[in-house]
Amino acid sequence: QVQLVESGGGLVQAGGSLRLSCAASGTIFSTRTMGWHRQAPGKQREQRELVAAITSGGSTNYADSVKGRFTISRDNAKNTVYLQMNSLKPEDTAVYYCKSTTTGGRDYWGKGTLVTVSS
Questions:
Q1: pLDDT for 68-77, tens place per residue?
Q2: Could you give the count of Cα atoms lying within 13 Å of 115 in the half-sphere of its Cβ?
């Protein structure tokens, strides 16, 4: 059973920083593409947007809205993926979800962690 548990969300002022963590179990973590997605208040699940992703080889990609501010990384020894978020803006307010994608293309999701950025 794949489990993804996010942590690190909270309330922060605009311009501040947070570091999200996602601990994975029940999966061969090192072979998985890991991603962070977010769902803004009032948006539906289908409207979740990709924030950042990192492949098993360490290649990364980011949404244009977070480039230069957010950094995704992974520690395969700890089965954990991180999202360092700097220069946070009120529009970054959302529930942030961790996603694991198998080599066969199957997705697993965590339950999310809330990030609130006050102006």
A1: 999 999 999 9
A2: 33
